[in-house]
Amino acid sequence: MSSYDPTDRRALDKRAGDQKRAETQAEIAVRQSTAWIMADPRGRSWMLWLLQQLRWREMNFDTNSVAMGAKVALADAAKQVEKQLRDSCPELLVTLFEEHLGLQVSPN
């Protein structure tokens, strides 16, 4: 007689826990890498260039629907990069704004 139990979820729970730990470690690695890039003035300059290439903070409207879809896709990518910067190193993002955009950002 077989000892297989279809309701036994221990293996699935273990696999889900392992996957969550791996995702958490990957997120930590991405945050550390982002902070490392932003720690250097050249890295901040490169990050601003990347955001500008992704048409960060530009208007997405276009009369051509295909062009507008492309602009929206770039803006989405820029939002994801900005969110990563805000999560990883918000103080260095403020430094980026002050250095390259001439903005004076108040702490409050």
Describe this structure in words.
With 108 residues, this protein is mainly alpha-helical. 71% of the residues lie in helices and 0% in strands.
Mean pLDDT: 87
Q: Describe the sheet with the most strands.
A: none
* Cα Rg: 21 Å
Distance separating the two termini:
69 Å
Strand content: under 5%
Low-confidence stretches: none
Helix content: over 70%
Structural class: mainly alpha
What is the overall silhouette?
A: flat
Q: Figure out the total of helices.
A: 4
> How many E-type strands?
0
- Secondary-structure element order, N to C: HHHH
List keywords for this structure.
0% strand, 4 helices, single chain, flat
How would you summarize what this structure contains?
This protein is mainly alpha-helical.
How do the helices and strands line up, and which of them pair or pack?
Elements: H1 10-38, H2 41-53, H3 65-88, H4 90-100
